[in-house]
Amino acid sequence: MEIPTQVPVMTLPSATLFPQALLPLYIFEARYRKMLADALQGDRMFSVAMQDPAKVREKPCHIAGLGLIRVSVDHSDGTSHLILQGLTRVQLVQTVQTKPYRVEEIRPLAAEAVDNVIIDALVAKVLELVKHRLKVGPPPFPFPALGPAEPQGKKSKSKASAVAVEDVLQYLERIAHPDHLADMVSCAVLASPIARQTILATLGVEERLKHLIHFLMAEIAHYQKEKGSKG
Question: Is this prediction's pTM over 0.70?
């Protein structure tokens, strides 16, 4: 698939679009209705960027996700629901236009292939922490290909949760590429938008996995402290 050199950009306060992830969006602003209409008539692509938290006015972070519109459903009031599939990380290089919607020149970003014992050890640590995180904290965002557990009563709830954890771990263990694993866990598990953006903006796989381990440990500590205060 050919990546364009310029794409529309949707800037959102806490959104991150990872490669291969699916992001549901509700389009209601006039500028983004126009953007969606133009994208559907063109290559069906646009970028989703998190708003730079250091800026008062709307300004996208420099690293964003480029997505392909897989499904778009229009409503009678002019709004739309759509599903965007992440294709690749991109760097926003230069602003081409800001009206009626932002368009940026982009540069696709790809991680180098890695395969060594350090990466293997980091992946094993991530899987260990994901298992711990799923047991101590609330359910994460849905993983692809995994249906939500439907507990029936207090006893079955515990059993269903255990099955869900095992399903998630089996799914993650089947992901062959460490960079895809890091992205999928970050997308589905990390609650903090800043943490997700940090992972998105980190191109090196080893560094990305190390960041992810740090964020998972912080979340686990948070939920354990929360449980202790309630107990």
Answer: yes
Ordered by start, the domain boundaries in the chain are: 6-109, 117-230
- May I ask the CATH class of domain 117-230? mainly alpha
124-157 tens-digit pLDDT:
999 999 999 988 887 766 555 444 333 333 443 4
Which CATH entry fits the domain spanning 6-109: 2.30.130.40, 2.30.130.10, 2.40.128.120, 3.90.180.10? 2.30.130.40
pLDDT digits (tens, 9 = 90+) for 58-81: 899 999 999 999 999 999 999 999
Q: What is the 3-state secondary structure (H, E, C) of the chain?
A: CCCCCEEEEEEECCCCCCCCCEEEEEECCHHHHHHHHHHHHCCCEEEEEEECCCCCCCCECCEEEEEEEEEEEECCCCCEEEEEEEEEEEEEEEEEECCCCCEEEEEEECCCCCCCHHHHHHHHHHHHHHHHHHHHCCCCCCCCCCCCCCCCCHHHHHHHHHHHHHHHHHHHHCCCCHHHHHHHHHHHHCCCHHHHHHHHCCCCHHHHHHHHHHHHHHHHHHHHHHHHHHC
Tokens 């998190």 belong to 50
